[in-house]
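The following record pairs a protein chain with its ligand, acetoacetyl-coenzyme A.
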Amino acid sequence: MDFRFTEEQLMIQDVARRIAREKIAPSAEHFDRSGEFPLENIRTLGENGLMGIEVPAEYGGAGMDPISYVLAMIEIAAGDAAHSTIMSVNNSLFCNGILTHGTEAQKQTYVRAIAEGAHIGAFALTEPQSGSDATAMRCRATKQADGRFVINGKKSWITSGPVARYIVLFAMTDPDKSARGITAFIIDTDKPGFHRGKTEPKLGIRASATCEIEFTDYVAEADEVLGQEGHGFKIAMGVLDAGRIGIASQAIGIGRAAYEATLAYVRERKAFGQPIGTFQMTQAKIADMKCKLDAATLLTLRAAWVKGQGERFTNEAAIAKLTASEACMWIAHQAVQIHAGMGYSKEMPIERYFRDAKITEIYEGTSEIQRLVIARNETGLR
Ligand code: CAA
Ligand code: FAD
């Protein structure tokens, strides 16, 4: 087993780190406060190949491997979590789904536009009444005699919904078949029948814009179906396997930022005449933070490695996402505790890391859902 990264992997890590340090981290507080969408920074990520890291060059991407994606996501998330949310949806939920299941024409049209950073993509599975229980969706796509589909219904919590040009949508085409009656579509938000709701105010990742979207008699052409009719749920689950590696990486990035700030603080801050880092209770926290961070990183790299081998990586991705998100939340919590009053203040980014950390345990499958996936894989029971 070789723990060294390749030249190529180190190069993209370096590009991402430089953008994160020079452009993203310095503006993170502004975007968190204002809740504005960081369009210019997102364009910079696109221009540097970070919106289609695993997309082959022929479709406008950087043509790199899943480990490169993990390394770049960690750097961007360490700069600001909200930027990495936008980046992860473009890379792993939008581009990955169309690359795996799309036609040549779909890849050229939609993947290129997102991978090059010309447009923003989104992924719409969740509905007001169906989050974890995704097959309980009500959004309906009705097939017409001419092969087109008419779509009606709502999707909620759609990341980049307020700004996306194209959306991968999952809708029920045959409600009698439950999971096997779901079909995936590629939506052009410029077409009639597509509406955006108000941007949701949120606890964290505030610069990542999220909204409800609605379809009223939206017409999807036959060549806007992604993959085969009735295969949508499997497409969604496969795409989410890859997405969960992205969220695990995001969690590592947030956790690392909180950890590094804490390391600096425990060396400087004094109490009872000595640096607080000399107290054994603080040292135990530092040691546990570091262990959790490294464990999460290794598990996430393992999931990315299995993906890169072309093997099924559902279980590895769920293990990585669960471990990394819970590590991130724990580390951010300890970081606030160690910074104490300053951890609670908006003068430092620690409270933002704490607010941002929470989402990693919720989206792309809650921690309970990751445990369910892992236990089903381990036991073979349902
Ligand atoms: N890959 C391929 N196929 C899969 C699969 C996978 N990982 N997981 C399940 N399937 C297949 C099953 O084999 C089954 O196929 P058959 O019909 O041929 O038997 C079919 O899909 C149905 O599977 P289940 O019976 O296991 O489905 P379920 O209803 O029990 O649900 C679940 C399983 C794991 C709970 C799933 O619903 C789930 O992951 N829920 C969480 C939803 C989620 O993660 N949403 C995220 C939205 S996007 C987002 O959040 C983005 C963001 O924030 C930025
Ligand atoms: P519910 O499914 O109602 O769950 C409520 C509670 O019950 C949770 O604690 C859950 O873990 C638990 N629970 C449910 N089922 C089980 C079970 N079988 N066993 C044990 N416990 C269970 N969705 C998209 O499609 N696209 C996006 O871009 C997107 N972006 C998002 C961005 C943000 C900021 C947020 C908050 C959400 C986003 N989501 C998106 C939706 C997200 O994926 C869901 O919120 C998530 O999957 C949980 O669904 P829910 O909120 O409906 O919770």
